[in-house]
Specification:
Number of helices: 3
Number of strands: 5
Helix content: 25-40%
Structural class: alpha+beta
Largest sheet: 5 strands, antiparallel
């Protein structure tokens, strides 16, 4: 059922504490942790505690939680002191866009120049 933890989901296991992660922030609705394969000095994933496969289904079903992810992304950037120099928030949606874990999540990237377009 949408919104319910999925037994085979890595990020649901991080939320439940069954899989360890370097958690940097937690709120009532989100968990933020360092990416295990960072693409920038700051590379943190912000995930909802509820399970939805991607950002669109999350935003459609629970827009307040989607907004919480963006607020937490800004807090991560401030905590890592990249808010003044600039940071990127990325939601990959679908395997063609590079999504590999099908639990909605935002990548917060900063601490280096981020070219456009991304490659």
């Amino acid at each position: 059922m949408a919104g319910e933890p999925q037994a085979d989901c890595l990020f649901c296991k991080i939320v439940s504490g069954d899989v360890p992660a370097t958690i940097v922030r937690e709120s009532e609705t989100t968990v933020a942790f360092r990416d295990i394969n960072p693409q920038a000095p700051t590379h943190v994933l912000v995930i909802p505690r509820v399970h939805y496969p991607d950002a669109v289904t999350l935003a459609t079903a629970e827009p307040a939680v989607a907004a919480d992810i963006l607020r937490e992304a800004a807090a991560v950037a401030a905590d890592d002191k990249v808010d003044a120099t600039g940071y990127r928030v990325v939601f990959n949606t679908g395997s063609g866009a590079g999504q590999t874990v099908f639990h909605a999540h935002a990548h917060v990237l900063g601490g280096r120049g981020l070219n456009w377009p991304p490659g």
